[in-house]
Amino acid sequence: MTTRPSLSVPFSVAALALAACAGEEAGPAAPGAAPQPDPADIEAARAAAGALGGRLRARLVATMAAEGPVAAIAVCNEAAPVIAADVSAETGMSVGRTALRVRNPSNAPDDFERETLEFFLARLGEGADPAALERAEFVHGTDGLAFRYMKPIMTGAPCLACHGTEISKPIRVAINERYPEDEGTGFALGDMRGAFTIEKRLEN
Predict the structure, then answer these.
(1) If you placed Cys at 123, which of 47, 57, 91, 128 could pair as Cys (CB 3.0 to 4.6 Å)?
(2) pTM here?
(3) How far is 45 from 54, CA to CA, in rounded Å?
(4) Of 196, 88, 189, 182, nearest to 152 (Cα)?
(5) How many Å apart are CA 196 and CA 23, to the nearest integer?
(6) Parallel, antiparallel or unpaired: strands 94-98 and 144-154
(7) CA 87 to CA 110: how far, in whole Å?
(8) Cα–Cα distance between 171 and 160 in angstroms, integer?
(9) pLDDT tens, 91-115?
(10) Nearest to 149 by CA among 48, 63, 53, 24
(11) Among 3-7, 59-63, 82-86, which range has the highest average pLDDT?
(12) H, E, C per residue of 73-99
C-alpha cells in the first residue's frame, strides 16, 4: 500500500458516513462546508472492503485447514497484496489494510489513517458496534482531492493463531522470517486489529 496524503479536511464522521449507517439522509451542505461523499461512493467502498476481507479470509481459512497456520503466513505475505491489487483493479479504487501495530511495514498508516484508527478505538471503547463503524470523507492532499473510506477489522477466532497473545514457536519463527519488525501480535478475540482503507483519486 502506497503512502497517502496527509489529512487537511476537518474530521467529520457524523456528517454522512455514520448517518448513512443509521439509515438517515444527509441534509444539504451549509454554505462553505466541506463537500460530502456521494452515497454511491460510500457503498462502493464498503463493497470493496468486503471483497478484500472476504477473499483474504476464505484463502486463509482454506490454507489453514489444508496446510496448517504456518502456511497462512505465506498467504498474508504473498497472496494478500495480489488480492488487494485485484480488488483495486476491479473497483477503480486503491484498496488495502492498515493498523496502528502493523505486521507489514508497507501497511503503516498515514495521518488520515492513524487519526481514523484512533477514533475507531475510542468509539469501540465507548461500546460502538464495529459493524456500523466507518469513516468516509473527501481529503485534500499534495496530489489533489481524494475520497477516503475506512472500516475496522476485528480479530476473529481464526486470526488468533497468528495475531493472538499465545503464538506457537513454529508460527513465531515463520513470522520473524518474513516480518522481522512485526508488531501484529497480542490481540484478543474481538479486538480491533486494524482497518480496511480505500482511496479514490478525484479530478483536480
Answers:
(1) 128
(2) 0.81
(3) 14
(4) 196
(5) 22
(6) unpaired
(7) 21
(8) 11
(9) 999 999 999 999 999 999 999 999 9
(10) 48
(11) 82-86
(12) HHHHHHHHHHHHHHHHHHHCCEEEEEC
